[in-house]
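Is this the right way to post structure tokens for a design question? Let me know if I should format differently. Anyway, here goes:
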């Protein structure tokens, strides 16, 4: 029987009540939100806990805990075995309550199969790329597709947007995604993390749209608008279409 304790923890939730359990091997699972990931990383950095990342399933293996996850934007499946101590992880589908989580049946993560021609213009060779981030929803990505189509460009995405199912992994730009070198990259609803910017060539001109005027993306963008994408993207589409019709 495993000695492991597995707890779901929400930022602002019942974390202190879990502390006595840390004497035994313990996994803390956080929701895969910006807040959850930040808390997970902070706890790992402060305590030396094993960081399992965004896991897909958990299982017992003797006295060890085995987590499965994918890396490199879903291309590689890995199994992480932890024997003891404190470990932290995030999950997309967080159980409703703070507290003990029953270990589920082992499930192997399936790397995403990528269709060859899933975009009209290949992301790697596009002159214009519209990159969508976690700040967009499905309607936002649909607008990006329409603007890209009108401009003969391609749509890219941040890792969280891919994880949320807003774009296929073949469109992920960044450290663990694709490297793109368009003339223009329009970053929409993304904060501007080093992991994303690592996927954009240094000669690319960057413009940004983000509702947060303090977003880091504005420090690297040549131009930008601090506005809600839900308001501005329809106007951009209209302007592009009007420009093409003129
Ligand atoms: C080893 C490793 C590899 C990684 N590889 C990659 C990678 O290849 N690619 C990648 O992208 N990330 C990668 N990441 C993840 C990276 O650290 C960030 O989590 C990610 O880049 C953040 O994506 P985001 O900007 O879409 O989301 P967030 O950082 O959550 O930013 C969302 C932004 O949207 C804005 N916003 C919200 N609502 C609106 C709205 N209505 N209108 C306009 N703006 C809005 C917010 O102000 C915020 O700035 C990696 C991380 C690790 C640890």
């Amino acid at each position: 029987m495993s000695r492991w304790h597995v707890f779901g923890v929400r930022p602002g939730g019942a974390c202190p009540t879990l502390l006595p359990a840390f004497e035994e091997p313990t996994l803390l699972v956080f929701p895969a939100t910006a807040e959850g990931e930040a808390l997970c990383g902070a706890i790992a950095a402060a305590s030396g806990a094993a960081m399992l990342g965004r896991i897909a399933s958990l299982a017992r293996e003797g006295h060890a805990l085995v987590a499965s996850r994918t890396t490199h934007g879903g291309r590689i499946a890995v199994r992480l075995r932890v024997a003891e101590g404190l470990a932290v992880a995030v999950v997309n589908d967080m159980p409703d309550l703070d507290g003990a989580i029953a270990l589920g049946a082992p499930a192997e993560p399936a790397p995403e199969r990528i269709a060859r021609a899933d975009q009209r213009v290949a992301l790697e060779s596009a002159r214009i790329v519209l990159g969508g981030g976690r700040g967009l929803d499905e309607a936002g990505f649909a607008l990006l597709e329409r603007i890209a189509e009108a401009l003969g460009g391609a749509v890219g995405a941040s890792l969280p947007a891919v994880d949320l199912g807003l774009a296929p992994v073949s469109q992920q730009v960044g450290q663990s995604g694709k490297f793109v070198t368009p003339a223009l990259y329009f970053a929409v609803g993304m904060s501007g993390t080093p992991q994303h910017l690592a996927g954009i060539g240094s000669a690319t001109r960057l413009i940004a749209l983000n509702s947060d005027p303090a977003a880091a993306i504005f420090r690297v963008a040549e131009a930008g608008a601090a506005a809600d994408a839900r308001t501005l993207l329809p106007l951009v589409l209209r302007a592009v279409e009007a420009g093409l019709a003129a």
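Format looks fine. Someone answered above. Worth noting: Residues 105-109, 111-119 have pLDDT under 50 and may be disordered. Residues 5-100 form a domain with the Rossmann fold fold (CATH 3.40.50.620).
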